[in-house]
Structure formats: structure tokens, C-alpha cells
Amino acid sequence: MNRSFDLEKLVRPNIKKLVPYHSAREDFGKGLLLDANENSLGAPFPDDQQLHRYPDPKQTKLRELIAEWRGVRAQNVFTGVGSDEGIDLLYRIFCQPGQDRVLTTPPTYGMYNVSANIHDIAVDEVLLDEEDFQPPADKILEAVKPNTKILFLCSPNNPTGNTFKPEKIRTLVENFRGIVILDEAYIDFSDQESWASKIADYPNLVVLQTLSKSFGLAGIRLGITYAQEDIINYMMKVKAPYNINKLTAEKAIDGLQNWETVQFRADAIKKERKQLADKLKQLKIVHHVYESDANFLLTKFTDAREVYNQLAEQYIIIRYRGDQPHCENCLRITVGTPDENERLISALKKLG
């Protein structure tokens, strides 16, 4: 428990005073609906989903399913347009433009910095330990300034792929006086448990997840934020009235109702990840394959830029990460299907 945490001292004054837009569907979802200026003649194609009606602004059914899946209450769940909406809203709620600061731990997910720049928030950085890509808790806490509002942690980390040690995360959550955002986009590929259920113990912990990775639903853009109810209430207050559309909600519900298939495929990707890593390690142009708890492998090459360019000419697209701290000559390789991985290895063998 973080006893020094005071949520109300962190929230921007204008957000506290904000009177949110009250949408029509918050009051009534059934009946003779003539209140929202919807097109009463309906969609211009056959439609059995009532797409001429606005969606549920609170996404009650979806949030209840997510809560059941992760073992939390629906009041602890926010659904957004990818994890990026959650990140954006948390900046809006807690960070005063031109005044407040956030902390990140590079190499890490780039949207933390992009969102900070959009909101005119200063970013302080403490690099992960070079040997194992773990967060140096003491250095991070020493870097905190009076106006540091948010600490971003990504575990499993992108682009390194490793999961942070629980004791490191716990130390930071218990000792940082602001909001700790733990991005778990890749958690279902890790053997470690999610921290989502621990939000009840830590009032300053916010956990981000997504259906883009283990669920294979990147195209529907559905992100999830878990936090204590007071934080979720602020997010619901600041979000756009109908941020999740009906089609996204429907497919997200289908995915959650097929969790066994999701788990089976995540396990299959983990097995394929090991096989791909073993094959990469046998190549002369590969210097090191880092351990991964995600659906990708960070791999150090003799000349990463040249390998990237040569593969791109063959329409084999991977991600150059050599411009990130501690990632010199590194490429990030998504674990593909067995056939895709064989094609990749075959192409790499021809490069040396």
C-alpha cells in the first residue's frame, strides 16, 4: 500500500470541476427513441445491429465480461480506442501542460513520449539496466521531481520483450507518490501473472491491456484500463461520449467469450517463439537473441540496418530498433506462423 498517495492532489483542478457531456443513451436505450436525432430510417444496407442507434456510452456488458475475465469489478474497468486512448486520458486528467512531468524507462513504447509532447508535458528518462533490461528502482525514485505526476512501466517491455521482476514493480508502486502506469499489452505471452487484480491493493496503480496482441484483434482497436474506481470515474468523465462503437464492442465480446482459443493460440506462439529463437541463434549474422516474454524477439545483428534493408527488398518487414538505448544493431522480429518464420530464416541464411 502506498500511504503517501493522494489522488485528489494529483488531478488537475479543471478536471475536478468538469461537467461531462450527458449523452442521450445514458438515460434510455429502449423505447420510442426520438431524443438523439438518429436517422429513423436506419443504415443504407441490411443491418441487424441497429447501427443507426448510438452505442452504450458506458459499455456495460463489455466491461462486465472484462472484469470477470481478469477477476476485478466492472467499476475498475475502462474501455478505450486502443491503450493509446487510456494513455491520452491519463495525461489529460493528471498532467498540467507546460508544468508537470512524467518518467519513462527507455528503451520502451514510443507513445508515452508522443502523448507527452502532444500535451506539452516534460519527460524525464531513466534507462533500464543494460545487462537485463530491468528498471533500476532506486535511480528511478531518485529522478522523481515535485511535479512528476506519472511513471510509465512496460512489462513485458517493448521492444526488449522481458517481464519486469515483481519486486521491482512493487518497490516503485509503493514508493512513487504519483500514478504508476503498468502497460501489460503482452502479458498473455508471459508466465508471470497480470497485476490487474492488484489494483485493489494499490490506489496509484493503473494497468493497461489490449485485445490487439494475444486476442489477435488489432483491427478493432480495443484497449483496457484497470484502476481503482475513483480513477476510472475520472476517465469516464473525460472520454468522448461514445468512444467505443458497436462493431468493436461486438467483436471484443466475441473474443472474450472465446478465451480458451485465445489461450491456446498464445501458447502456440510461445512454442513458436522458442523455435524461432533457436534458429536465429544458429545464424552467423546474429550476435544475440534476447529472452522474450512477448510475441516478438529482440535480436542483435552484425549490421542491423543492412539486414533490415535487404529483407525489406524481399517484402519481409521487421522493425529496426537500433536507434533505441541499449539496442545498437537490434531488430525486433514478430513471431509469425511456422511458414512465415521459415521464410524469414531462409532469407537470413542467404545474407551470411
TrEMBL record:
Residues bearing the modification N6-(pyridoxal phosphate)lysine: K213
Alphabetical list of InterPro entries matching this protein: Aminotrans_II_pyridoxalP_BS (IPR001917), Aminotransferase_I/II_large (IPR004839), HisP_aminotrans (IPR005861), PyrdxlP-dep_Trfase (IPR015424), PyrdxlP-dep_Trfase_major (IPR015421), PyrdxlP-dep_Trfase_small (IPR015422)
Listed CDD domains: AAT_like
PROSITE patterns with a match to the protein in the record: AA_TRANSFER_CLASS_2
Listed EC numbers: 2.6.1.9
Pfam families for the chain: Aminotran_1_2 (PF00155)
Keyword Cell cycle assigned: no
Gene Ontology molecular function: histidinol-phosphate transaminase activity; pyridoxal phosphate binding
GO biological process: L-histidine biosynthetic process
Listed cofactors: pyridoxal 5'-phosphate
Keyword terms of this UniProt record: Amino-acid biosynthesis, Aminotransferase, Histidine biosynthesis, Pyridoxal phosphate, Transferase
Major enzyme class: transferase
PANTHER family: HISTIDINOL-PHOSPHATE AMINOTRANSFERASE, HISTIDINOL-PHOSPHATE AMINOTRANSFERASE-RELATED
Protein name according to UniProt: Histidinol-phosphate aminotransferase
